[in-house]
Amino acid sequence: MLFEAELEYPLNESVTAKSFIAYEKQIQGPKPLVIIAPDWRGRSEFYCDIARRIAQLGYIGFAIDIYGDAVVGVHDEDKKVLINPLRENRAELLNRMQHTYDYISQQSFVDKTKIAGVGYCFGGMCVLDLARGGVELNGIVSLHGLLSAPTTLAQDFPIKSKVLVLHGYDDTFVHPPQLLEFANEMNARKADWQIHMYGNTSHSFTKPTANDPAHGLKYDAMADKRSWAATLYFLQEVFNV
What integer is the mean pLDDT of 33-62? Predict the structure, then answer.
């Protein structure tokens, strides 16, 4: 049976996060933690469900709120208002991710030696920036994530987190040249990295509600299945379970 709760903690002096946590009650002692970073919409029920799926595997699923007050964008204009200040200020994005990591990693039920991040779209940028910023997680997974490196943060030290990028080849938000830039960045920073690409696959391929091909958004059941399997295998590897 799952324990579920909403946890509150500060993201900065004026913003309070309301993140969702789930884990199996009957599993005693500290457990591996999977930080789940949502897309630009925010911490919707879709990501709480992913936290539950992760929890059923014996890990802690932690769907994070990066905007504060568990705000969720409904329309595209709402989402732009939420995401743009953080996309344009990567230092603040990293600050919020760092506060999130510091808070959850200090909890007694978390195995501090086994922490990973899984991010979707904008959430991919969130977890990658945490690793870029020097936090040593066991692993990072980016699913149809935004991959551009921050230009205002130091990049002269190695990335110690293992990195897995799961990407649709037809993703119009991240074109092949950007993948090459990302690969060069990872090599330059001596990361243990890999990219899996799914052919004829668009952005948001893991979201069943994504059905807007004109804007490059399309669910793909097979890519969803394959990327989930790849994520679980990667977690087993980095957690050594």
Answer: 98
Number of domains comprising the chain: 1
Reference 197, options 162, 227, 238, 229; nearest CA is 227
Range of the domain at 119: 2-239
Q: What is the pLDDT of residues 182-212, one digit of tens each?
A: 999 999 999 999 999 999 999 999 999 999 8
Task: Spell out the residues 6+ positions from residue 157 whose beta carbon is closer than 8 angstroms to its own.
Answer: 134, 189
Query: Angle at which helices 90-105 and 76-87 pack, to 10 degrees?
Result: 90
Confidence of residue 86 (pLDDT cuts 50, 70, 90): very high
Strands of 31-37's sheet in order across: 2-10, 16-24, 60-63, 31-37, 110-120, 139-143, 162-168, 193-198
Distances (CA, A) of 117 to 63, 75, 171: 10, 27, 22
Please state the rounded mean pLDDT for residues 210-233. 96
Cβ contact 164:142 at 8 Å: yes
**For residue 223, what is the domain's CATH number?**
3.40.50.1820
Look at residues 109, 13, 26 and name the one whose alpha carbon lies nearest to residue 60: 109
